[in-house]
Amino acid sequence: MSRLFDSRPGDDGLPGPARRLAVLALVLGTLMAVVDTTMVNIALPSIATGLEVSASRAVWVTNLFQISCAAFLLVFAALSELVSRRRLYVAGVGVFTLASLGSALSTSLESLLVFRALQGLGAAATLSIGPSLYRSIFPSRLLGSALGLSAMVVAAGYAAGPAIGGLVLSVADWPWLFALHLPLGVIAVVLAWRALPRETGRRGGFDMAGALLSVAMLGGFFMAMDSVGHQAPAWQVVAWLALSIAAAWGFLRRQRRATHPLLPLDIFAEPRFSLALAAQGTAFVGQGLAFVALSFLFQQEMGFSPLETAWLFTPWPLAIMLVGPRAGRLADRVNPSLLASTGLSLLLAGLVSLAWLDAGAGVVDVLWRMLLCGVGFGLFQPPNNRELMSTVPRERSASASGAMSTSRTVGQSLGVALVGAFLAAGAPVQATLWVGGAACLVALSASLARTPLAGAAQARRRRAAESSSASD
Questions:
Q1: How far apart are CA 318 and CA 324, in angstroms?
Q2: Rounded CA gap, 144 and 458, in Å?
Q3: Which of 432, 413, 434 lies closest to 424, judged by CA?
Q4: Phi-psi region of 153 (alpha: psi -120 to 50; beta: other; left: phi over 0)
Q5: In the predicted model, what is the mean pLDDT of residues 32-58?
Q6: Residue 321 CB: number of other CB atoms within 10 A?
Q7: What is the number of other CB atoms lying within 10 angstroms of the CB of residue 15?
Q8: How far apart are CA 133 and CA 21, in angstroms?
Q9: Mean pLDDT, range 165-186, rounded to an integer
Q10: Within a 10 A sphere around the Cβ of 471, how many other Cβ atoms?
Q11: Do 228 and 420 meet the contact criterion of CB atoms below 8 Å apart?
């Protein structure tokens, strides 16, 4: 860990000591957003009881947060180029913290939903630019290690969320879950304002038409996926999908003509970026699908209790926490695409082995398969993220970060919706895991396709470094 904060001659990014506070600000902001996602899921029954509403209505406490967050990722990534990433990050954490206070004080479902939507906007502002901030804080030689740290933080948040939620609810009422964010949010705002890199925003207008089309495109998609997951009428799903497709068509046309496009399409001209983005999106389809499908498999098919199911999931995020930072460090020295492809192979093997589980399988049978999936995902994500962020020019970092966050969120949502669709059609839970395996196979194909390109780029960097050393 200490090597992340040492300085060498010629380093870009912040000086070594200055990186510590900047990273702490990013870690706190990320943890609040990620922990909130899983922590509040545990509290939905308590919220329904406390506010005297049905469980189906209480689900919108989670849904509205996720939809508002996902719909604005591209918007905030583009906005950061105008106002600077530092200001946007501070504003995002501030809005999230104030909305958490409002959520804690809410006495009706309607007011809680308003503040949850605001929390989603705050989370979108921070998550959309997080990876690009790591690139501006750390020198290029440590980018993989830095993104490995980011992967570890996200995995830790997902792992700790349910436990924190259960612990708080065992001694206090649900509003205290939101109150937990207040001290952390204040600290994160102060640190971010003091420590994040200062930069000037670009001059020029903002693509407001593109922003509206982006929100309609992503919002319509996530509403369609939510409708599928909750087995809504077919006409409702089709209507949301039609809105999303029409907005996507208009969005692409707008991006080709806009002076300052919301998402510059030229970043997709780099094959390594496009293939890494495709690998990430389809890999998250597999992971998102597996997390939901396995809950049904463990409880309905294998007879485990909800608490036992939570423990069975533990090896997956723990493995990411352990493997992710090491994979990131290794990606700074060897071909990152090769590492990512190896990780996807392990993830694919893990999902296939889980799909073969029968109802009589024991705890050990489950645990080693979950561990294999976690090791595979931990080996895949940081090297792949390094490819995503390092293959575009620095001035396009915010756009790449927004595309990266959107791809991840779309993949997860599609995976969850596929589980709902398969279960509604009467398919066995194991069949959905085979679909997750197929998604990982597509991700592996995309990753392998860019491996020679990444190897050639690495060889060019090595020759350039040797030439520079020789001239010195």
A1: 10
A2: 13
A3: 432
A4: alpha
A5: 82
A6: 18
A7: 10
A8: 13
A9: 88
A10: 6
A11: yes
Phi, psi (5° rounding) for residue 174? -60, -30
The DSSP code for 197 is P
For the chain, state the CA radius of gyration: 22
Report the distance separating Cα 276 and Cα 189, nearest Å.
32
In angstroms, the CA 317 to CA 373 distance is 9
Element (H, E) at 22: helix 16-51
- What is the DSSP-derived secondary structure letter of residue 199? -
Average pLDDT along the chain: 86
pLDDT digits over 283-298, tens only? 989 988 888 788 788 8
Are the C-beta atoms of 428 and 302 separated by less than 8 Å?
Answer: no
Whether 94 shows a pLDDT value over 90: the answer reads: yes
Place of tokens 């860019």: 450
DSSP reduced 3-state for 335: coil
Q: Return all residues near 24 (Cβ < 8 A) that are at least 6 apart.
A: 191, 195
Of 153, 214, 224, 217, residue with least CA distance to 416: 224
Cα–chain-centroid distance for residue 94?
20
Q: Which among 391, 411, 402, 407 is positioned nearest to 130, based on CA atoms? A: 402
| 143 in Cβ contact with 386 (< 8 Å) | yes
Cβ contacts of 289 within 8 Å, gap of 6 or more = 415, 416, 418, 419, 432, 433, 435, 436, 439
> CA 109, 113, 119, 124: dihedral to nearest 10 degrees?
150
Q: What is the per-residue pLDDT across 106-121, written as a single tens digit (0 to 9) for each?
A: 999 999 999 999 999 9
Cβ(178)–Cβ(37) under 8 Å? no
Give pTM, 2 decimals: 0.82
User: What letters, b where the CB count within 10 A reaches 16 and e where it falls short, cover 21-40?
Assistant: bbbebbbbbbbbbbbbbbbb
CA–CA separation, 242 vs 253, rounded Å? 17
Reading the block at residue 5, the tokens are 């904060």
Calculated CA dihedral for residues 249, 253, 256, 260, nearest 10 degrees:
-90
Predicted pLDDT of residue 179: 93
Rounded distance between C-alpha atoms, residue 348 and residue 338, angstroms: 15
